[in-house]
Write a structure and sequence with these properties.
alpha+beta; 3-stranded antiparallel β-sheet; 7 helices; 3 strands
Length: 109
C-alpha cells in the first residue's frame, strides 16, 4: 500500500480551506493529463472527496468552489464528480487507516 500524503495531511489538519487549495493546485498542475484521461483525474480526486466528507463538509459544495477556479476544460467534470454519491474507498482503490497520528490515506491498487 502506497501512502497518499495530500489527503492524509488535510484530513489530519481538519482544514477545508487547505482541501480546496490542494484540489485546485492538482487540477491546474496537470490539466493536460486530466483532459486526456478523466479516469485518472477521478482516481486522484476520490480520496479528497472522501476527505471532504470526513471533515464534515459537503463534497458537492467543496468541488463547486474548486471547479469555479479550475481550468475550463475540466470544470464540468469536477462539478459532476463532487455530486457523486458512489465514491467509496473500495471502488476507487484507496483505504483510510486510523493511526495514532490520525487518519492515513493509502492507495490499495
Amino acid at each position: 500500500m502506497r501512502p497518499l500524503p495530500g489527503p492524509t495531511r488535510i484530513a489530519r489538519s481538519g482544514n477545508v480551506g487547505a482541501l480546496t487549495s490542494e484540489l485546485l493546485d492538482i487540477l491546474l498542475d496537470a490539466e493536460d493529463q486530466w483532459r486526456s484521461d478523466p479516469r485518472d483525474m477521478m482516481l486522484v480526486l476520490a480520496p479528497y472527496h472522501d476527505c471532504a466528507w470526513r471533515l464534515g463538509a459537503d463534497p458537492a459544495r467543496v468541488f463547486d468552489v474548486v471547479a469555479s477556479g479550475a481550468p475550463a476544460s475540466v470544470r464540468d467534470m469536477v462539478r459532476v464528480f463532487g455530486r457523486r454519491d458512489d465514491i467509496t474507498p473500495e471502488a476507487f482503490g484507496f483505504a483510510v487507516v486510523e493511526t495514532a497520528d490520525g487518519p492515513e490515506y493509502v492507495q490499495t491498487r
